[in-house]
Each structure stands twice: as C-alpha cells, then as structure tokens.
Specification:
Elements lengths: L25 E2 L10 E8 L4 E4 L6 E9 L1 E5 L2 E5 L3 E5 L5 E5 L5 E8 L13 E3 L2 E5 L3 H18 L6 H29 L2 H12 L7 H8 L3 H12 L3 H19 L4 H7 L5 H12 L3 H13 L5
Amino acid sequence: MLRGRRAAPHPALPSVVSALSPEGRGDDETPYNPAGLLLSGHFQEYVPYHTLRRRGTSDWLLMYTLRGKGLIQQPGATYEALPGSLVLLEPGAYHDYGCVPGVVWEFVWAHFIARPPWIGLLRWPEIGKGLFVLSITDPAARRRIRSAFFRCHDDSHAGRGGVYDDLAMNALEEVLLVATREHAAASDDRRLTPNIRRVVEHLDGHLHEPHTVASLAKIARLSPSRLAHRFKEETGDSVIGYLLKLRLKRAAKLLEFSGRRVKEAAADVGFASEFYFSRQFKAFFGISPRQYQQRVAVGATGSAAD
C-alpha cells in the first residue's frame, strides 16, 4: 500500500533514456518545506517521474530506497540508488533525481529542518556538492531504518501536531543515528585487519569471561607481543584498555536500561570486584555507578522541583 499520495497509472516505458527524463515534475526551484519542520512520503514510481530543482530547497532532503532503482545526478556526479541506499541533500544543493527505464523505484523520503544536534549526523560520504550517500548492507539495520521511516511518516501525517510532530522527528533521528552507526562500524571494519577484528568480536561477545593478552593472542593467531603492538596501532588502545572501556560502556547500558543493581551489572561484564568496578566507572564517566543510575532515573521521570 502506497503512502504519501495515491499512485496514478503509469505510461508505457520508453525503450531508451540516456539520463533522467525531462518530463515528470519538471523544474521546481521553490523551497519545498518553507514553514514546517518535516514533510514525508512513500512513493512507487516509474519513468517519466523526475524532479529537478537547480537551486535545491531551503531544507534537507533524505531518501531511502526500498525496492528497484533511482538515479540521482548533479553536474559531475551520478549515483544509482539501490535497495538500502540513503541519499541526503543539504539545503541549497542541486536536485536532479528520477527513474530509469523498466525499473520501479520505491522509496521513502523526508524534507526536514535539522535539529542542531543532528549536524554531526548529517555528514556521510559526499559525492557531489551537498550530496551525501550511504549504503546500508546489514539486514537488521535496514529493517530498523525502514520501520523508523514509516513511523516518522505515520506520525507526521497524523495531522494533530504537538507530540505527533515530536514523535515524527524522533523517528527520523533514529534513522540518522542508525545510519551513522552503520557508517562508523563499516569504517572500523575496513580499518581493522582480520586478526585484530577476531579479537574485537570475541571480546564483544564474551565480556563476562576473564581475558589476558596471552589468551587473546591465541584467538588472533599472533604472539602476545605482536598482538599488543598491532592492537594499539589499529584501535588506538591497548588490549586491556580497550577491554576495560568496552566493559564500562556495556555496564552503563545495563544500569540505564535493565534495572540491574551495581553489583549485578559489574558481574555481568566481567568485574569480580564491585569496588574496583565503581572506581574505574567513576574514573571513566566522572560519577559513580549509583550517581549515574540516579541521573538516568531523574531524566526519565523529570525533576520534582525546578
């Protein structure tokens, strides 16, 4: 079922089109979203669907391909938007996108005014002037982005404003966060050699177990000294330092979301001593585990007094 607008019957597809069709929506150089914070849609299109805005719009445009293929162009840049592709155009960027012959392009989109904290999330690989692209390959990440995009769309079209607008923006923020996480993970994977990646993946899945450089060296198939040198070179941390940070960050998540007591969270991530855990937690986060839990609880319920 299409969302955003009703699909109209499509004309027969031409046999050859060398670039985007000049037909379709034509040249629209006016701001698309001059007043609201967010507009969204779910389209399923064929040739001659095409949008051209030489001066772009006053807001950001995000498109996520669900099925088929779309073609995004700028002078000197061409990108094929395939399933899992995210395309982001910044305010004022040249817009030229549409369908290719014989292929349906199903995609969801959002025009939005970015919240200030989002600016760091809106910088993916840039292939044109203000044209950023990202390909999401992980199936779970794709499902999560799809779900968040449709929640964004549903809430933005509720027409009731207020909390629904906030929910729509929060769902869009989830899309950006998941995409940024996947981009960072892919960059990390490219940086790590197979030997070091094996250690990192083992630590992530076995945090509660005891580890030494010697035991991890066997997993990496390297000598302990070689592992220590390579690990520091590729991750920026020593093996034990990396493990400590990973345990503390995981423990913080347990304290925040699982309701675990401090002693339980410490044991879950491999700390035998609650006292040692608390000391390391405070050194890393600047507050004790109990203070961390209290702040999280206040943030969730709101302060009782201003």
